[in-house]
Amino acid sequence: MELRRRDYQVERPLLNQKQLEELGRWSSVTGTHQWRTWLQCSHARARALLLQYLPVLAWLPRYPVRDWLLGDLLSGLSVAIMQLPQGLAYALLAGLPPVFGLYSSFYPVFIYFLFGTSRHISVGTFAVMSVMVGSVTESLAPDEDFLQDLNSTVNETARDAARVQLASALSVLVGLFQVGLGLVHFGFVVTYLSEPLVRGYTTAASVQVFISQLKYVFGLQLSSRSGPLSIIYTLLEVCWKLPQSVVGTMVTALVAGVVLVVMKLLNDKLQRHLPLPIPRELLTLIGATGISYGVGLKHRFGVDVVGDIPAGLIPPVAPNSQLFAKLVGNAFAIAVVGFAIAISLGKIFALRHGYRVDSNQELVALGLSNLVGGVFQCFPVSCSMSRSLVQESTGGNTQVAGAVSSLFILIIIVKLGELFQDLPKAVLAAAIIVNLKGMLMQFTDICSLWKANRMDLLIWLVTFVATILLNLDLGLAAAVAFSLLLVVFRTQLPHYSILGQVPDTDIYRDVAEYSEAREVPGVKVFRSSATVYFANAELYSDTLKQKCGVDVDRLISRKKKLLKKKELKLKRLLKEEKLQRQAAASKGTSVSINANTSIRDIESNNMEGSKAKVRQGEGSRVTRGLAVTSGVEVTGDMGQGILLVIGGWGSWWFCESGETCFLPTAPVVTQLEAGHFFDASITKQHLFASVHDAVVFALQHPRSGPVSPVSVS
């Protein structure tokens, strides 16, 4: 037969489960104990563990220097040029002195180079993570706690020291959470953060970032707030204090923003002709610093500047463990959000370039980056989308680019950092706001999700509103809880349908959707799109009654009455036989023929009664929960069988005569065997390989009888 032909014909015998197992030589799969492999000790096992937890040893010895080194060097330089201004700016978001943003752009990046599995993401400071850290530092170390008695001014030195201590302890705790979750293979936790949830959350976080930078744009002194509705109160305070704005600061921010936007447009227009993108942020920072130093923006116009940036590295400091109790909740939220952002972006690049990202190892790598960074006074980091795109587009192939960028940052920290002391904070705020364009454009998700999936739109909107109103930590918890409740709600309201046969095929589709699909006379095919369990069993039963006319409770009641009649008949037959035996014994005559006839009747009734008892037990299980039921016998005036096709775990059919035909999936067969479901009345001969097999069996066997090999074409 030619492969190009679109039609085909298969002829095979009707297959029940028993015949299918014999034909396919089915055998149960013995489960393996994973813990046994964990406890194995060998040279190969030790080497595998070393390469698993230190991936750099696996790919660096095979690094193609001639092909990839130049691209990684250029990419690392480009990323470092972006890291410098973003590190300084995002430190302000975290409520810390700008130099700590440079530290957070060096230590974690180099640690990820050793332990990470993604070749293209750029680890370091990120706006969402920074604003989450800032909400913690400003709530636990507000300006009001560091007011000086004489003139009610804030002691910035003491405040910054307290906030740095909080941020570093938070980073250590975030790292411990991530490493611990990674070691116990808890990377799947990110699956509970759906894409609409993450995008709604990051959009709300970008709004919070935007509002938090308004004080630097207008040169205002605002009160520190945290908790629910804090961002609303901050926005109201900004509006209230607008008359107190510093004109020089506003002009500086406006000019810097315009320059950044114009250079961004030039980059987009000339990207095909430029080997590297124009370092717009770095050039803006250098120009703004030079102008501020030459004109004296701070002294003449009251423009707030970055201030002292100490040269060189600082020694490691042990975190204050007494702060852990206050930070544990926020640390877990930051750990999950940071990992969700990193793994989402990492998988995008991995799919694009054909390699694999290990989610559990990514947790370990990010955790070690934050853990080591916290010891060196860094705040929690994740990966940046903008820097990752630059790292990929400029020729980056591995995390060698990340190592190169961290070395450039090290040079800046040691030698060049102090040159940016006169950099206006308004310029950093303008750079942050301009970089929010990508996340703020996620508002367009509302239109696309409205057309594609309104349940996902509901998750997006609830996440956004909850994050805006409840702040970042409580907003994330509320969003995850709502998402899980929505999953349960979806399983309680699945799609139910009646299936019909597509003409001249063995395919069954929803008759409401396929106009040519026709119901098979004498057979009903009923399908549920969700697994049946205790939460939706009652609704399933009601829908079954509505669509197929099967009243489970009524059937059970009628069945019990029928069983009671059979039991009374059986007792009457036994009593008649006993009387016949007594009469025969008194007369001394033989009644072997009559007795034998009665015995056959009794045996027949016993068998019928035993089957009836089994059916009664099945019906009772239906009322408790349809997910574990074996069937409902259709009796009385219902002249058709019913084929129930339950999406998720199995299907079954019941005909008027009492025959029960099932169509379960393979895991369900195993569960039925483990639960001792099969007996003399219900065997694997009542299980079928497909819907069409069961329909053919129903049509060929309207009454109970031995199963015969009916051909299915």
Question: Can you put this structure into words, describing what you see?
Answer:
- Residues 556-583 form a coiled coil.
- Keywords: Coiled coil, Membrane, Transmembrane, Transmembrane helix.
- Its main location: membrane.
- Residues 69-463 form the SLC26A/SulP transporter domain.
- It comes from Equus asinus asinus.
- It contains 28 helices and 10 strands.
- By secondary structure, the chain is mainly α.
- The strands form 3 sheets. A 6-stranded mixed β-sheet has the order 5-4-6-7-8-9, sandwiched between helices. A two-stranded antiparallel ribbon has the order 1-10.
- Helix 9 (156-183) runs antiparallel to helix 17 and helix 22 crosses helix 23.
- It is elongated and about 135 Å long.
What is the residue-mean pLDDT, rounded to a whole number? 80
Major beta sheet summary: 6 strands, mixed
Work out the strand percent.
5-15%
The rounded distance between the terminal residues' Cα atoms is 17 Å
Helical fraction: 55-70%
Spatial arrangement of strands, main beta sheet: 5-4-6-7-8-9
Low-confidence stretches: 591-660, 703-713
Q: What spatial form do the alpha-carbon principal axes imply?
A: elongated
Specify the number of helices: 28
Rg of Cα set: 36 Å
Helix/strand class = mainly alpha
Tally of DSSP β-strands: 10
Coiled coil: 556-583
GO molecular function, one term: secondary active sulfate transmembrane transporter activity
Keywords: Coiled coil, Membrane, Transmembrane, Transmembrane helix
Membrane topology: Multi-pass membrane protein
